Amino acid sequence: MSTRHEPTDVVQTHPAPTARPVRGVERTLAGWSNYDRQACQVYRPEKVAELRRVVAGAPQDSVLSRGAGRSYNDAALNGGGGVLLHARLNRLLDFDPASGELKCEAGATFGEIIDFALPRGWFPSVTPGTKFVTVGGAIAADVHGKNHHQDGSFASCVASFRLLTADGRELICSRSQHSDAFWGTLGGMGLTGVVLDARLSLKPAPTAYLAVEHRRAENLDQALDEFAAHDHRFAYSVAWIDCLAKGKALGRSILMRGRHAPLNDLPRELVDSPRELECRRKRSVPFYLPQGLLNRWTVQAFNSLYYRVHRDQRAIVHYDSFFYPLDSVLHWNRIYGRQGFIQYQAAFPVASSRRGVAALLEKLAGLGAASFLAVLKSFGPGNASPLSFSLQGHTLALDLPWRRDLPELMRELDELVLRYDGRTYLAKNPRLSRTAFEAMYPETERFRRIKNELDPQHRFSSSLARRLGLTEAARTAVRAA
User: Fold this and answer.
1) Neighbouring C-alpha atoms within 13 Å toward the C-beta of 283
2) 85 CB-near residues (< 8 Å, 6+ apart)
3) Which residues of 288-306 are buried (b: 16+ CB within 10 A; e: fewer)?
């Protein structure tokens, strides 16, 4: 790969696409949680030129980019509209081995980047909990990882990206050029245009392993105190949390904190292959398991066992096990049954995070709302994106299996989060109302202004955008003007 660098303020235009017919295929799509399924007209362009033609010529009123389909709600669905798959647009385009800057197409996944970069001593600076997410999806949701307390969200490692707008322009967006488009697209859920490619800053990784410390916390207060006292010592910090524990054990946790391990920290048997890419045999869930298999009793039994067997210890752990524990089980979402589940993630500011997380856990424990996976993390400062989820404080993520009263439970959880000045993640909450959304995200109008400038006819839309009024409200404002 070359190490050429292009100007960061280029605005390109292309001639109008030819009248060649654009055809899609009707498919029923769902988010990763399988909670909602919608019929969409799907396109899978092979080249950027074909992608431009679809954006300009698809007969649907609106189109939307979709990466690997790993968002948990309707963020990557466009019911009745067009959906652009980027699976074929996943090339790695340029790499500077001295600085670790990588240029890749938006369809490249974190797994593909790791396969290329780790043998060369580099690793993604920020990574979500699965390596099957695409770069375009990571930009759209401004994803975060276990190192937010030190390094921030994905925006922190995005140097620039190329954005295709509805009128055929290509904007090179960065912090200094087209900065409104840059910050509106980061966290903008794909509503400003199509990200074609991006330049990312990777971080040095001397080996494929991490030096990890496990520590048990008897309750939520102890877990949060541990974060406050020791997060500065660890590049990565996260806690598994027992969401069914009550009373004095409310929020009991296993803290897992680590840093990239240098070669001289590895045991002798790993020294000969310090950058091994794969360490686990993958298994698959071949079919949907019976609904209700994950309930308060099975989850409670698992949580009790998990807490007992994880003692305070230090270990050298492969990156795959530490960052992506669920990736070794393909189609793991099928364990929740055909009716799916909801992943619910809330963030609370520092001033109210202790009370907010405790109230959320008390609510779930009181109802016996079993979460097989519950994760607690510290957040560092937020950024300039109007729709980015992260804010300085703490965040709690929960998997909630389907139950008859789930819509009502979600409404109550949203009210609770608002009571403590929190917000929920747009990539995960499929029941969030427009009223609650606007209360959680005070810069919504700033995002609408950015979208109006980039996409005045609202060619880019999604089921989430319509649910939250990000498309219809903005279109009404344009007409009124």
Assistant:
1) 7
2) 42, 43, 44, 45, 66
3) beeeeebebeebbeebeee
Within the chain, which residues score under 50 in pLDDT? 2-11, 13, 15-19, 473-481
Q: Are 216 and 242 within 8 A, CB to CB?
A: no
Is the four-CA dihedral 140, 141, 144, 150 of positive or negative sign?
A: positive
421: left (phi over 0), alpha (psi -120 to 50) or beta: left
Q: What is the pLDDT of residue 20?
A: 57
pLDDT in the model for residue 1? 56
**Single-letter code of the amino acid located at 16:** A
- d(Cα 149, Cα 61) in Å, to the nearest integer? 41
Tokens 């009745």, residue? 80
Q: Give pLDDT, residue 367.
A: 79
Q: Copy the structure tokens of residue 23.
A: 């055809």
Tokens of 140: 């759209």
Residue carrying the six token digits 């310090």: 274
Strands 25-30 and 37-43: antiparallel
Nearest CA to 445 out of 381, 384, 387 is that of 387
Q: Give the residue from 172, 153, 157 showing the smallest Cα distance to 122.
A: 157
Question: What pLDDT, in 10s, does the model give residues 334-351?
Answer: 988 999 999 999 999 999
Report pLDDT digits (tens) over 351-373.
Answer: 999 999 999 999 988 877 667 77
Written as six digits, the tokens of 324 are 């992506």
